[in-house]
Amino acid sequence: MSQSRLVPPSGRLGVLLPGMGAVATTTIAGVMLARRGLGLPVGSLTQMGTLPLRRANGAEEVPLKEAVPLAGLHQLAFGGWDLFPDDALASATNAEVLSEKHLGLVAEELRAVKPMPAVFYPEFVRRLHGTHVKSAPSKAHMVEQVREDVRRFLRDEGCDRAVAVWCGSTEVYREASAVHQTIERFEDGLRHDSPEISNSQIYAWALLQEGVPMANGSPALTLDFPAMYELARERGVPIAGKDFKTGQTLMKTIVAPGLKTRMLGLRGWYSTNILGNRDGEVLDDPDSFRSKEVSKLGVLESILHAGEHPALYGNVAHKVRIDYYPPRGDQKEGWDNIDLFGWLNYPMQMKINFLCRDSILAAPIVLDLALLLDLAKRAGMSGMQDWLGFYFKAPMSPAGTLPVHDLFAQHSRLHDALRRIAREEA
After folding, report:
1. pLDDT by residue (tens digit) across 361-383?
2. Would you tell me which CATH number, out of the four given (3.40.50.10790, 3.30.470.20, 3.40.50.720, 3.40.50.12280), belongs to the domain 3-244+359-421?
3. Burial class (CB in 10 A: 0-12, 13-18, 19+), 147
4. What would the mean pLDDT of 186-194 be, rounded to a whole number?
């Protein structure tokens, strides 16, 4: 990458969020509060973190947003799509994540953010019944409608460019099929309404065609198949995913590397969650839960490398459950029971009870991904950005390689990539 290719972050940056529910509106409101000095963007590496850089007088910790040229919070304009017509204030109020006091401070700004009608084929999200949806004679026409939405948003908001982060519900589990293998097959599938092409894939195809970088915050197939990789490279667009690493899996990627570093053995890890938000309702459908289960189960296997340490990790029982419990709302609770063993195989146990707020943990991820994908695009980067795996439960990785799940290893890779962009030695 030549220094001349790093375009400065001038003008307005549109942040497009398919799915304007709890996560999206918590992000939007938080940015609006932070840029007025009315709240602190805790959890955001781009706003709160530092980057170690090598200087003539030794290493120096430089604020990340000064080390690389990121767009500022004051440059962001928000938009998106949703199944329901509620503006961002109404949606945030309904989600009950942020207090009335906080929402009241930015109420007019939030009220002005109104969702565009959503792409919605109900077979992919069976527990939701949207009223604010598009209609089109084919999925190819649906792609064109989303592309026009993007162009209109950029024009109306006076934006120079945009990024997108999927904040919608988890779709039913699908594996890549024949239609996902090449651009030609996928476009033929769009024209013939292939049942294998989901809502999120339609958004992704439209956004990439418009040159908009995208991150996938759900475990769905959205961006993670050969035709999409090919399109991203062809259009010169960076992509990243999948499934935001928030509550229980965040803890797993912190604790499991610690156990492995100490060479402590593991017999079993039982995880269960209760949550009552829209995501919990969707995950009550077994096929949607299957998407989430696959993304969660891969974490331990990747971190522990059982083949290298069969005596310690060769026979681990790993179970994951999610239960929809409406009274809990967005205040998710995760329980973990960890059966481990130490010296002479003597057994021990660890219990973790994480009472977290799903959208509070996800919002800084959405902001960071938006700013970092914009940085990547301005730096001339395209295709899969596996250095952003720090933010995901099931990080995308190049063919023939295993994804990295260890949070600390991911953090190092993120820093290495940012140093390269900043023209520093790793």
Report:
1. 999 999 999 999 999 999 999 99
2. 3.40.50.720
3. middle
4. 98
